Amino acid sequence: QIDKYGKSEDKNIDLVESSGLEIRYLAFNTDASPVKSTAVRRAVAQIIDRGALVSKVYGSQSEPLFSIVPA
């Protein structure tokens, strides 16, 4: 919707950008045998392309996090 209205020439629509504190995260069920090991979870965290994931889902409206605490 942001892309659609951002390109609109409708003078009745004003888009205002502001910072937000909302975060989304994926978590493992650490009781599941494939990810029970901390080493496996760390390895998966290393190979996930956070930038690609965030840009596919949110476009330019978000940035990847590497901690649950926003910058």
How would you describe what is shown here?
It contains 3 helices and no strands. The chain has 71 residues and is mainly α. The protein has one domain (20-71). The protein is elongated.
Task: Work out the radius of gyration.
Answer: 17 Å
Mean pLDDT: 85
**Protein structure class:** mainly alpha
Quick one: overall form?
elongated
What are the defining features of this structure?
71 residues, mainly alpha, 3 helices
Task: Summarize this entry quickly.
With 71 residues, this protein is an all-alpha fold.
Ordered list of secondary-structure elements with their pairings:
Blueprint: H1 2-6, H2 38-47, H3 50-58
